[in-house]
Amino acid sequence: MNQDQVKTMLLSIEDAPLDFSVIFSGKKSKKVNGLYKVESREIILHNRNFSPNEENLLIYTAIHEYAHHLHACAKKGTLPLRAHNHEFWAVFHALLEKAEAKDVYRNIFSDSPELSKLTEEIRKKYLAENGGLVKALGKALIKANELCDALGARFDDYIDRVLCIPRNAARVAMKMFQYGLNPQLGPDNMKFLAGIRDDEKRLTAEHALLSGKSPDSVRELLKKPLDEDPKEQLEKERARLSRTIESLKKRLSEVERELEEL
Questions:
Q1: pTM of the full predicted structure?
Q2: What is the 3-state secondary structure (H, E, C) of 157-192?
Q3: Residue 21 parent element (H or E)
């Protein structure tokens, strides 16, 4: 695969708003397999890092650098100081999914029976079991909260001095149980979901994670407004405006009263 073929392959995955170049450096690098120069919009691939039977890894690297280019296109030709942020990983993972669907890139994780078996063990024995334990802890803490209330004792004091665990960790575990989160997601993803107050957004995020979306992709998904009926949007806006008007009326009355007293 040469430079032109790599560019054609990248464009077949997703078109780019701004033109770019793919350059084989002809060098071997111990630091990186490739890099993206945002000023010149150049994707540099250190092609000597890859043996003839590692074309899939070359494609993976090219897609990674192409993700930087598309990220820059979305930012009007610039990149943030921290290039590998949530936005970037969401762009990159979406490109990989498209590349796999088009048979441009091969997901090799399922090629090894040993790795596939270990993956299932990690999911069931560690992620799901630990997620279930934290969720069960949340249930027990809710009961402890009720017992503290019955005793006239402070639940926070119980957490601090009896259980000796961080209050935030306790509250998050309680939310995991209250929201009925799926333990298969593992404790870290459950913690992320527990921080989402909106029920619809939380369910959307949970379904996305369970379908195989990466956490970074889900974080970016949540930034996009969920589809909503135009009538519901107007009703919500009316409610917000009504609250604002009432608040302003109240403040106006207070100001007028204060002026009279002067």
A1: 0.77
A2: HHHHHHHCCCHHHHHHHHHHHHCCCCHHHCHHHHHH
A3: strand 21-24
